[in-house]
Amino acid sequence: MPCTVARRSLVKCPKSLQKFGFCGLLAVIYAAKLDMPANQAQLRVLFNKVKRICAMQPGKWKNAVPKRQGGISFEHTMCLLKHYNTCNFHEVRPPTVGKITLATWLRTQTAPRTSYIVHVGTHAFYVHVASSIRKWTLYDQRGPQNRSDLAVLTKKGGHGRKLVRRVLQIEDLLLE
Predict the structure, then answer these.
(1) 3-class SS at 78?
(2) Would you tell me how many other CB atoms lie within 10 Å of the CB of residue 80?
(3) Paired residues of 140 in beta bridges
(4) Is 130 helix (H, G, I), strand (E, B) or coil?
(5) Which of 6, 8, 54, 17 has its CA nearest to residue 140?
(6) What is the pTM of this model?
(7) Domains of the chain by range and CATH?
């Protein structure tokens, strides 16, 4: 009889790494249940590993300011998830792709007991929805954010106002 993989509690991004722009990698870390880098040296090792896996140029991110280091595209996100092979995933196409904001998507497009990687503009989030669609949590470098943080997300310039570009639904693999 199959049983589901026990969900580890998600480790918050360390303060020393919050200045780096690795939100997409962070979403992959959460989805693939990888170990969170604890310091900049471990983050650099992760960057090098990602560059090899995704066949990126060795000098990528070298001269970029920290907020640009570690940025990956949606295609790189899928490449990394395929490589680590710890979860199933598929792209979810909202009915109004490119016309729905993150805040609206959170209220209308999520399903209970699911996880997603959501790309908005140049930012990515890992989203976990608990037993109710009203109990969602966004994870990025700033730490977990939930429904009580919606006012901050939707203020002028906030990510909640940005248009959803692409969404991957994440499913844990079953153990046999």
Answers:
(1) helix
(2) 22
(3) 143
(4) coil
(5) 17
(6) 0.87
(7) 13-175 (3.90.70)
Helix, strand, coil distribution of the chain in percent, nearest 5: 35, 25, 40
The number of helix segments (H) and strand segments (E) in the chain equals 5, 8
Enumerate long-range contacts of 125-134, CB under 8 Å, 24 or more apart.
125/23, 125/27, 125/159, 126/10, 126/26, 126/27, 126/30, 126/31, 128/10, 133/107
Phi-psi map region of 157: left, alpha, beta (phi>0 left; psi -120 to 50 alpha): left
Q: Please state, in angstroms and rounded to a whole number, the distance separating the CA atoms of residues 120 and 135.
A: 20
pLDDT in tens, 63-118: 888 888 888 999 999 999 999 999 999 998 866 656 888 988 888 888 889 999 99
| H or E segment to which residue 89 belongs | strand 87-92
